[in-house]
Amino acid sequence: MLSQDSNDDTEDVSLFDAEEETANRPKKSKVRHPVASFFHLFFRVSAIVVYLLCEFLSSSFIACMVTIILLLSCDFWAVKNVTGRLMVGLRWWNHIDEDGKSHWVFESREATPQDNKTVSEAESRIFWLGLIACPVLWVIFAFSALFSFRVKWLAVVIMGVVLQGANLYGYIRCKVGSRKNLTSMATSYLGKQFLRQVSVFWM
């Protein structure tokens, strides 16, 4: 489990009490949740396809914009609340305590022998591929809209970057730990690269 970070309001909480009955299922490389895997990709890919083809599908900018935003919103909800929990055992959300203080919670299923039996490598690859590739495409679209002076599309593209980037950031926090851990990993990596370059220089 992730430990609580003193620099923010991340909490250490139990995960998936209602899904303990799935622990005895055998580990398989095939897709165990085909519906969740389908919708994990369907909304985000559909939003990208509509954005690329909207000028050919409809002459109404408003209709295209509303369609894309609806698809992005459905994708955000599905990935945040359903597919991450089923496909990779991760979940994140925000709640307000009695004092009105906001808490961000990042959960990861404990790595146990029984839990490893429920992991699908195929689903994990599908989840992370879709989670990482699509925000990268929206960032490319943002630069393209900016440099081509398509100002009216810039707001739509920024919405795609924000919604899909938020899920990417949340699940990275769930996967590798709190912000403090991320900072430590980055510092350690840069330190190793620096030492490697120094070693090569003096050889």
Report on the architecture of this protein.
A two-stranded antiparallel sheet has the order 1-2. It is mainly alpha-helical. It has one domain (34-110, 125-191). The chain has helices spanning 34-57, 61-87, 113-116, 121-147, 151-176, 179-202, and strands at residues 90-96, 102-108. Residues 1-7 and 12-27 have low confidence and may be disordered. The protein is built from six helices and two strands, in the order H-H-E-E-H-H-H-H. The N and C termini lie far apart (43 Å). The longest helix has 27 residues, at 61-87.
Compose a concise summary of this entry.
The protein is 65% helix and 7% strand. The protein has helices at residues 34-57, 61-87, 113-116, 121-147, 151-176, 179-202, and strands spanning 90-96, 102-108.
Which regions have little confidence, pLDDT < 50, spanning 5+ residues? 1-7, 12-27
The coarse overall form would be globular
* Elements, N to C (H/E): HHEEHHHH
What's the domain count?
1
The number of strands is 2
Classify the helix fraction into a percent range.
55-70%
> Strand arrangement, largest sheet?
1-2
Structural class: mainly alpha
Q: Major sheet, described briefly?
A: 2 strands, antiparallel
Q: What is the terminal separation in angstroms?
A: 43 Å
Strand-residue proportion: 5-15%
Q: Counting H and I runs of at least 4 residues, what is the number of helices?
A: 6
Organism: Dipodomys ordii (Ord's kangaroo rat)
GO cellular component, one term: Golgi membrane
Subcellular location: Membrane
Pfam families: DUF846
